[in-house]
Amino acid sequence: MAARARSQERRAEILRAALEVIAERGYRGASLAAVAERVGLTQQGLLHYFPTKEALLVAVLEERDQWDSVPDSQWRLDLLGSLVEYNAMRPGIVQTFSALLGESVTEGHPAREFFTRRYAAVRGNMAQVLRAEYGDRLPGGLTPEQAAPLMVAVMDGLQFQWLLAPDEVDMPEVFRDFLRLLGGG
Description:
The protein is mainly alpha-helical. It has 9 helices and no strands.
């Protein structure tokens, strides 16, 4: 059991290091050798935990989603505001996620399938949140399903604007403004 715990600890350490390297260099510039060096392993040693760079990338993305996870039925609009505030305190994570998202739109990128699945689920969750808050129609007349992609677009678009101009874009405040707009007031 102790060996298994050490193995899980080591995997977590590798994921943190990979996140840092990707944040610094981008996915394409990040190498397994750089990640291995950061955690004191050989590249061959790293491959014991993650057999390919793509496997490591997907594990990094899944780990990041675990940090932000809330059971689907428990998401509420006020929690979304709290998530935006939380993200504003961790620019490195947001930068890595945003960089990988941007790269994933290219054909054949190893994270493309992950993001495609993730966005389908997130849109569904946002529709549930909006339905719980507003019923079948939002004050502006949209259905929750129509408004959900807009909610996701605002959240992700704000992250890009904030990363590029953190002194000019107050991400949590702008998101609160959007929620007021969405609510019709």
